[in-house]
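Sat 14:20. Reprocessing the chain from the morning session after the first attempt stalled halfway. Input below, unchanged.
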Amino acid sequence: MRRVRPISHDDRLSVVDHLDELRSRLIMCVVAFVVAMSLTAWQNHRVLDIMNAPLPDNVDHPITLGPAEAFYTTITNSAYVALLIALPVILYQLYAFLLPAFSPQERRVALPLLLMVPLLFIAGVVFCYFLILTPAMKFLLNFNADQFNTQVRARDYYGFITMLMLAMGLAFQVPVGVLAACKLRITTPEKLRRGRRYAIVVTVVLAALLPTIDPLSLILESVPMYLLYEVSILMASAWGRPIGDVADQPAPEGTG
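Finished this time. Tokens:
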């Protein structure tokens, strides 16, 4: 595999060179995932213990209903965690491939936004795991418990919590979307402040669209999403100046 060298904005590459660079970076991503997958597959019992932790005390372990379900479920969960571990390497390769397309001025805008994406995604996943899943599972699995013989199927349970963590990771991208909209002159911090009432409604609707539907989880999901909206307004006021404004400003007196 050819060593990937840093590429500047002024470099002119052929289509073959771009494809060769893309192939090399994809191979690096696959290698990072395979290494992480080897680790999570080796520690698959620890991975399952982490995934089972949000279950209430009255539920022992998820059940399987097929001869191969335990195997496929273990491999799937190991792959999910491996992808999360390999995410920094994968995103770095993505950024390194895309950033040369930006001019130096555009790069100063794009780089912080791109770096915020994985950090906010991981923050959303961690928030969901530690603060939402346990009360959500306790409420849902104990609802009318005296009327049902509640058992949790492994495939349904792991799919449910994985989808919820993914949704919360995406919901935590609100600051990135707001900053990008301000940079592109789609909106302004002043408009965002005037739209707080609508933001509350949209936040509750988005939280209601997430997999959990119990009132407690709805509140736990809505509050941080709205707080992120308020944080986004502060960030947009400080760093949300549209692209080009900085360059168009006259230089301060006494410089040059």
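The first helix runs from residue 15 to 42.
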